[in-house]
């Protein structure tokens, strides 16, 4: 996992709430063995009609949004089943940051494991950002995880807060196992002081 300190990217907004994981990656595409390649199936049932033609007014089908890396969306994003493939699809499509007023808990865990930064903001700030993204062509945000701050093209700034442990993992680019190994020496010292914890259980 690559370290995440700052990221500047174009914003695309999907102003809907309760977007569940079955919408993010429909179940008919879950049979893939490979982890990559899910991006082309992202929100497939919304991006394409029953004949496989692109839905013209869907935000992700707008050519100007094709290189967006920051997704702006409604509350309770990622609800539904706990499929990690949903995060893979978003990441493979190119999203590095998702901003919403709330996220489903399991989706939060899966995102932090895969290096996607989730930012929660009050709904009124989400609405303001959505408005700005529609008013300004090529609307961009700079995300500074170290400072926990957003800044747009015109210098508007917003503070955000990320769970300290998640923030540390993303800044360092490490996974859960690597975080545990940071405390390997302390764990060994604990075990040496309490050898009876490691004693075999006799039947």
Automatic annotation (TrEMBL):
Gene3D superfamilies (alphabetical): Aconitase, domain 4
Amino-acid biosynthesis recorded as keyword: yes
Pathway: Amino-acid biosynthesis; L-leucine biosynthesis; L-leucine from 3-methyl-2-oxobutanoate: step 2/4
Aconitase A/isopropylmalate dehydratase small subunit swivel domain span: 1-123
InterPro entries linked: 3-IsopropMal_deHydase_ssu (IPR004431), Aconitase/3IPM_dehydase_swvl (IPR015928), AconitaseA/IPMdHydase_ssu_swvl (IPR000573), IPMI_Swivel (IPR033940), LeuD (IPR050075)
Catalytic activity reported: (2R,3S)-3-isopropylmalate = (2S)-2-isopropylmalate
Keywords: Amino-acid biosynthesis, Branched-chain amino acid biosynthesis, Leucine biosynthesis, Lyase
CC annotations in GO: 3-isopropylmalate dehydratase complex
Broad class of enzyme this protein falls into: lyase
EC number: 4.2.1.33
Domain of life: Bacteria
Keyword Lyase listed: yes
Gene Ontology molecular function, alphabetical: 3-isopropylmalate dehydratase activity
Signal peptide: none
Family from the record: Belongs to the LeuD family. LeuD type 1 subfamily.
Name this protein carries in UniProt: 3-isopropylmalate dehydratase small subunit
Lineage, uppermost ranks: Bacteria, Bacillati, Bacillota, Bacilli, Bacillales
Gene name, Swiss-Prot/TrEMBL: leuD
